[in-house]
Amino acid sequence: MHLLCEPYLLDPRPGSVTVVWHTAEPGTVNAVLIGPADVLAAVTPATLHDVRVVPAATSRLERMREDTPGGPVERPVHRQLAVVDALPERRTAYRVMSVRPGGEAAFSAVHTLRGAVPAGTPVRLLLTSDHQLAPMVPANLELAAETAGDLDGVLFAGDMVNVVDRASDWFDHANGRAFFAAFGGRASWTAGGRTFTGAPIISSAPLYPTIGNHEVIRRTPSPTLDAQFHDAVPGDWDVSTYEAMFPVPASETGGPRWWARTIGDVYVVSLFGTEIWRPERPGTRGTYAERPADRDAPERWGHGRFIFAPIGKGSPQYAFLVSALASAEARDARHRVVMFHHPSHGLGFNSVPAYTDPVRVITDDGIRYEYPLAGDYVLRDLAPVFSAYYVNLVLNGHSHVWARFRDDAGVNWLETSNVGNTWGAYHELSGRTRIAPDGPDYVLQGDPGGLEPVLPTVAPLTGPGGEPLPFVASDEITVFTLLDSAAGVVRSYRYDTATGGDVVLFDEFPL
């Protein structure tokens, strides 16, 4: 029996933390082992009396599959979950064990865990998103771990993998860059004469996840898992695999789809702020139009770039956001962070069209969809809430680009760390123009929210003419970002995977 991944930590609470790992078989004994690191390193099933044993609950992930020439087939994946309580405030060594019926035992490496960082205590957090098995992810995580040292958590703004129900995307993809492989130090990617394996960050620093569009899939099967991801339509979509893998943090109204937690002196709200991604290719159900042949066939409509869960004024999420930010926990925190996937302030491709419900227009020639910029729920409804409750940082992903903004109320907006597979930066200095209809609702260059990007404060990249660039959009330069609440700053670093060299601090701003 083998473990499909190293354990990962979720939702630390005072004196406790949730430990999760995955196995191919259910196992006869699955447990978290707590004790001195040297004892744990040598432990066997016969010497468990020397350590504390916390049993795990086993459940099968019902939707895990792999593609085959004959179509998707089930792949057995079992979740092992244990809540370890009665923990001291200091870090404590642990490892996990799973035993098969014949007695063969599999152990993880030895890691450390602890309960929640006490409220008011400074923390260091990694800010990231959009890994999706991209080439530079192992380098990004390995260098982040080397630079940061011990972390107190990872804020992940969505899009962990490409297809949420494909098991190999999570554990053992042939390209060597599966999500848990990179986050467990088991990956492999070579560039600039160096092979990167990632780092076991979330085995000791809790993961705080957010749903991106790649965590959503159609409930109804399709011929391939890729097709099933693209085929989601209103009323026929599913996030149950995400919810099974990351059952906490959770809230009473949203479960794991939206939640709020205090991490030391930082208060974090995570929202389900994402939409279906539609390509703009002839013959596809696109963002702006249906296929002409489908005009009179509603069962074949894609419904444009529809939003999965309402987020605007009057929705349960909006009410949750206001209640969370008005809470004593939020007011008492030194810093407040809100994260969700869609970047309404951004330079990336996916900042257009506006984050609003598509308006269907039926003509003799077909069906098109319009997205009024004035109806953008983030800009119209959420941004005033962020200002009113003194949010320090809004963290987004989706476009695989780094850029940041600061609005008139002093709220910082960050398009998170590009780790490869960039969609590019759409700015006059890049020369790139978004593909979108003509008209004022579609901003072809720059931020559709009307803000100017902030130039990196330390060492911006430069363009061909030597002009400093307010973005990083590269498939060779990877970026990672750290929030250091003790210093009250957010720092972004870059590394050129093609040439190697040093990690460069290129931007720093106060919260």
Structural description of this entry:
The protein contains 9 helices and 27 strands. The strands form 7 sheets. A 6-stranded mixed beta sheet has the order 16-13-12-25-26-27, covered by helices on one side. The radius of gyration is 23 Å and the shape is globular. It starts with 7 loop residues before the first strand and ends with a strand. Strand 1 and strand 2 (16-23) form a beta hairpin. The chain has 511 residues and is of the alpha+beta class. The model has no long low-confidence stretch (mean pLDDT 96). Helix 7 packs parallel to helix 9. The chain has 2 domains: 1-116, Immunoglobulin-like, CATH 2.60.40; 124-510, Purple Acid Phosphatase, chain A, domain 2 (4-Layer Sandwich), CATH 3.60.21. The relative contact order is 0.12. The chain has helices spanning 37-42, 137-148, 167-170, 179-182, 225-230, 240-245, 316-325, 328-332, 377-388; strands at 8-13, 16-23, 29-34, 52-55, 57-60, 65-66, 73-74, 78-84, 92-99, 105-107, 111-113, 124-128, 153-156, 189-191, 194-196, 207-209, 259-263, 266-270, 335-339, 359-363, 366-370, 393-396, 403-406, 412-415, 477-484, 489-496, 504-510.
Q: Could you list some keywords that capture this structure?
A:
26% strand, six-stranded mixed sheet, Purple Acid Phosphatase, chain A, domain 2, 2 domains, 511 residues, Calcineurin-like phosphoesterase domain-containing protein, Metallo-depent_PP-like, 27 strands, signal, Immunoglobulin-like
